[in-house]
Amino acid sequence: MKVIICIDDDCGMLFNKRRQSRDSKLIEDINALTDKLYITSFSEKLFKDAKYSVTVNDSMLDIAGKDDFCFVEDRDISPYENKIDKIIIYKWNRRYPSDFKFTFDLKRAGFSLASAYEFEGTSHEKITREVFEK
Amino acid sequence: MKKILALIALLLTLCMSFIGCDFLAPTEESSEESSSVINATLENIPEYSGNIYVTINDNQPSFEADEITTEAYEFYSPLDKLGRCGYAEACLGTELMPTEDRESISHVYPTGWVQAKYTGYVDGGYLYNRCHLIGFQLAGENDNELNLITGTKSLNNDGMLPFENMVADYIKETKNHVMYRVTPVFEGDNLLASGVLVEAYSVEDEGDGICFNIYVYNAQSGITIDYKTGKSYLSGEAPEETTTEETTTVESSVDANEIQKYVLNTNTKKFHKESCSSATDMKEENRSDYEGTREALIEQGYTPCGQCKP
User: Model-level pTM?
Assistant: First the structure.
């Protein structure tokens, strides 16, 4: 299973049950990565214009197969560590408030950085996409 | 009028809770996933304990239905008889965002401005910043004295700035509007605010994108502050290299708001002194020469080099 997340400089993901930020260029980048994506109902609005198969399922991390991509905003991926073979992290390169953070220990779980790519977003000067693989 | 009465009531409530030292334990955690964010109510804001902000009323702001609008505006209270700022309120949108770089604001002296330097204790050394109530990146107000208070580095950079970043990027991305109000809280005749209440609510999506209500402490770890005057001193025993300049004025110190020359690394988002070896060795495509204030760079998301400490 491949997991996609977004974090700020403090590894934050959410504040007050809301995503820290959004960027349409980032969504375009995800769209270019896969033609089949799992999301939860929390992320539905971000992908309402997607031209490909987006499956909304709040149990996506339980049902996704080996080659499926899951966009994760509002939950901890640690319980699924053994199912995950790739983690794509988008960094906002900004400091936002957060009360829900990405605490997954990539190194301990055997992940290492495979590639990194930077691009300019619609509302962010620089977004970094880092791909970690086992 | 209703809005003004509500704010007076809010300030009275805050003052009563401070004056009465009625600091109670926080009511609950705002999230099961975090133990670092504390939730409180206006009546029982806990004493500062290292977390620079607490959430208020489960993050629900107190804007009334009849004041929520999609028409951009900004309002700044007149200074009171002691020269202190009152609340600042705006309906923020792309219409109000700055189109030019920020200029120096070092000629403004908000109440309680008694600058002091704590090398090794405060990032950059200097305790105080001139803090915009409504951040420059949100409304483009440069040196409006009705919008500037004396605030600690921590209040400015750790407390208010991340929230301003979140609101600014939301507006840029969605082109929506955000109701935004910042209320400085002064106890009695104190010249230095104890903290600021910051409320925000995104209008077009009815708070789905932005919704918070926080109280940011005007505090700095390791430093004890006299809020009556703005003077400060180290909470513990000061090491020999620490210099405390309680009466140093802005004119005689290199200040975060003075115009300086810096070298920016646009890749790492660090800024350096021109003489720094990292600036000399920097790749040309990542280098940008900059002349402006340190504070403006930090507001743009840059952090000072740990080696040359610009």
Answer: 0.78
